[in-house]
């Protein structure tokens, strides 16, 4: 519990001053709560003395006391407002900062990170975990620390009048604190399990949503939803377990405070009865007995939630500890765009994909990469873009090892068009200018025209301001592909990587996409993964990849004369495409 509190305070960083200032206002608010009680008790004492004939009551004091009580109540709300103003905004500032930091981390880690981390777990950490910190982090700190500071203030007030009765307060708080520690330990032990259950629900929901087309086509909704049912049942069971373990300690915590309140009333009454306490003081103690533990009663929720917050902070720290792929890189400007692979090997986990590969790609040339499925073609392109780091060997761009670059400075030289296009849930205009956010309207329209998508965009209800559904599902595959090419044209990078950009496109759209690609690749260094002979036969260089190795290298005509893997590939493609060279 104390460890989590310290973690949250450390998390506040540059906002610690505002946090501590909030505690000061919390103490002042507590004194503003105590003052009206003391005034009311003093006034009642004066009235009782008047009735008993001990002294005459000054009627003017009634108005003075009302004014003072009203003033203290107003002052209390002012202090509460100032505390909220300084403290409540901290978590929103920090979580906004951390969300941006996580986004930057995810952009700069190796793609291998996403293979070893469950997407549902990662999303749950970014959304639910940070939301817990945002909504409860600072609030729980204030509830815990502010609650005990308030109790200490009221205790000091009671000590002044009667230290013996005040000690009952300490006894009640001490006993309740023992049960709070039990609550905290129970929460700490079970929070990771609860968080894991929530992450399982997120993962199951994502898998179910992604697989709905298959679910519907095979009519197997019962099978597909089984993981969601299991995740929901696990979450239900762990939360019930947490509540069942939390409730007894929480009840004991509250009972100890209530018994302490009753003890204050009885002790004050007894001392007054035997003449060792004045009646106004007794009245004040009785009033305090109903308010002194008010904030501490809420601490039980804080102790319970701190365990959840601790797990959320563990997830955040885990993300922040991930090593940047370009941690030692710098912004480098290059004079040429020659690409060189020197004895490069790469493996996913223990599965070696690229095996001691060496080749060169000269700037302003076209290189086609062909080979059977799973041979490592796409991996070679990913290594050029440094989505992964090589295990052995070196890749150079413009004479510089890729490890010398930051990701941004490297990728500023590269545009990529993938087979499976992803469009963001935003306007078409924003999707096109994603690679160049400051592009003018004229530049956007020019890129759209070159990529052969201007006409269909203008036919949409809102033209370039039409909002694309997530992933681009509201557009056809050919339309999505042409928008992605417009995005690459607008970025205007000197190196273009085409990963089977026309493989999944219908014949009606293919000639439009080929025209768009021609516009994209003018005077550029082109690396294309393709199966269509029309795409690769005019390449300056063809790399034939098989089982992670470059088995052949040369022009179309040279490779045909070799009577090797490439010639067999061409024969198969000629048969499939129904044309001959």
In short:
The protein is α/β, with parallel strands linked by helices. It contains 22 helices and 10 strands. Helix content is 65%, strand content 10%.
Give the SSE map:
Layout: H1 2-12, H2 16-52, H3 60-108, H4 112-116, H5 119-161, H6 163-210, H7 212-218, H8 221-224, H9 226-273, H10 279-289, H11 294-297, H12 299-321, E1 339-348, E2 351-361, E3 366-370, H13 377-384, E4 392-397, E5 400-401, H14 407-411, E6 414-417, H15 428-432, H16 441-450, H17 454-458, H18 477-491, E7 495-499, H19 507-520, E8 525-529, H20 533-536, E9 541-546, E10 549-554, H21 556-562, H22 565-577
Parallel strand pairs: 3-8, 3-9, 6-7, 7-8
Antiparallel strand pairs: 1-2, 1-4, 4-5, 9-10
Helix pairs in contact: 2-3, 2-5, 2-10, 3-5, 5-6, 5-12, 6-9, 6-12, 9-10, 16-18, 18-19
What does this structure look like?
The chain is α/β, with parallel strands linked by helices and 581 residues long. The protein has a domain at 2-321: ABC transporter type 1, transmembrane domain (ABC transporter transmembrane region fold, Up-down Bundle), CATH 1.20.1560.10. The protein has 22 helices and ten strands. The protein has helices at 2-12, 16-52, 60-108, 112-116, 119-161, 163-210, 212-218, 221-224, 226-273, 279-289, 294-297, 299-321, 377-384, 407-411, 428-432, 441-450, 454-458, 477-491, 507-520, 533-536, 556-562, 565-577; strands at residues 339-348, 351-361, 366-370, 392-397, 400-401, 414-417, 495-499, 525-529, 541-546, 549-554. A six-stranded mixed sheet has the order 6-7-8-3-9-10, sandwiched between helices. The protein has a four-stranded antiparallel sheet with strand order 2-1-4-5, covered by helices on one side. Helix 19 (507-520) links the parallel strand 7 and strand 8. Helix 2 (16-52) packs antiparallel against helix 10. The termini are far apart.
């Amino acid at each position: 519990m104390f460890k989590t509190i310290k973690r949250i305070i450390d998390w506040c960083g540059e906002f610690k001053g505002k946090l501590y200032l909030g505690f000061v206002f919390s103490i002042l608010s507590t004194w503003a709560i105590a003052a009206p009680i003391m005034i009311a008790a003093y006034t009642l004492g004066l009235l009782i003395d008047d009735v008993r004939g001990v002294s005459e009551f000054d009627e003017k004091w009634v108005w003075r006391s009302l004014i003072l009580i009203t003033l203290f109540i107003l002052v209390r709300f002012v202090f509460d407002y100032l505390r909220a103003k300084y403290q409540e905004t901290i978590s929103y500032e920090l979580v906004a900062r951390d969300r941006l930091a996580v986004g930057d981390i995810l952009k700069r880690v190796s793609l291998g990170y996403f293979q070893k981390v469950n997407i549902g777990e990662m999303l749950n950490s970014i959304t639910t975990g940070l939301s817990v910190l945002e909504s409860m982090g600072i609030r729980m700190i204030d509830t815990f620390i502010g609650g005990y500071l308030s109790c200490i203030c009221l205790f000091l007030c009671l000590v002044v009048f009667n230290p013996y009765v005040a000690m009952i307060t300490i006894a009640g708080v001490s006993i309740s604190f023992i049960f709070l520690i039990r609550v905290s330990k129970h929460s700490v032990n079970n929070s990771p399990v609860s968080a894991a259950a929530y992450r399982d629900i997120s993962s199951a929901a994502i898998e179910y949503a992604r697989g709905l087309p298959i679910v519907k086509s095979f009519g197997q909704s019962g099978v597909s939803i089984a993981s969601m049912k299991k995740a929901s049942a696990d979450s239900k069971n762990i939360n019930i377990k947490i509540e069942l373990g939390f409730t007894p300690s929480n009840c004991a915590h509250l009972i100890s405070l209530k018994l302490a309140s009753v003890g204050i009333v009885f002790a004050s009454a007894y001392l007054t009865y035997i003449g060792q306490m004045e009646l106004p003081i007794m009245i004040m103690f009785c009033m305090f007995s109903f308010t002194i533990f008010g904030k501490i009663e809420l601490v039980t929720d804080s102790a319970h939630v701190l365990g959840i917050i601790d797990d959320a902070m563990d997830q955040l720290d885990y993300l922040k500890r991930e090593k940047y792929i370009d941690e030692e890189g710098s912004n480098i400007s290059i004079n040429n765009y020659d690409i060189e692979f020197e004895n490069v090997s790469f493996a996913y986990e223990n599965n070696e994909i690229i095996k001691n590969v060496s080749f060169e790609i000269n700037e302003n040339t076209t290189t086609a990469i062909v080979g059977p499925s799973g041979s490592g073609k796409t991996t070679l392109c990913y290594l050029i873009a440094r989505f992964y780091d090589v295990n052995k060997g070196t890749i150079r761009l413009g004479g510089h090892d890729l490890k010398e670059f930051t990701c941004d400075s490297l990728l500023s030289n590269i545009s990529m068009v993938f087979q499976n296009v992803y469009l963001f849930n935003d306007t078409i205009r924003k999707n096109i200018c994603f690679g160049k956010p400051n592009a003018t309207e004229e530049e956007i329209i020019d890129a759209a025209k070159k990529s052969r998508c201007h006409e269909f965009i203008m036919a949409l209800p809102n033209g370039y301001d039409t909002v694309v559904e997530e992933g681009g599902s509201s557009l056809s595959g050919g339309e999505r592909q042409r928008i992605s090419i417009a995005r690459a044209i607008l970025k205007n990078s000197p190196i273009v990587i085409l990963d089977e950009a026309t493989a999944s496109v219908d014949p009606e759209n293919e000639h439009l996409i080929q025209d768009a690609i021609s516009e994209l690749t003018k005077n550029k260094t082109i690396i294309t993964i393709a199966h269509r002979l029309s795409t690769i036969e005019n390449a300056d260089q063809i790399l034939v990849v098989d089982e992670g190795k470059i088995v052949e290298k040369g022009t179309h005509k040279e490779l045909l004369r070799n009577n090797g893997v490439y010639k067999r590939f061409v024969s198969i493609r000629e048969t499939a495409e129904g044309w001959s060279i």
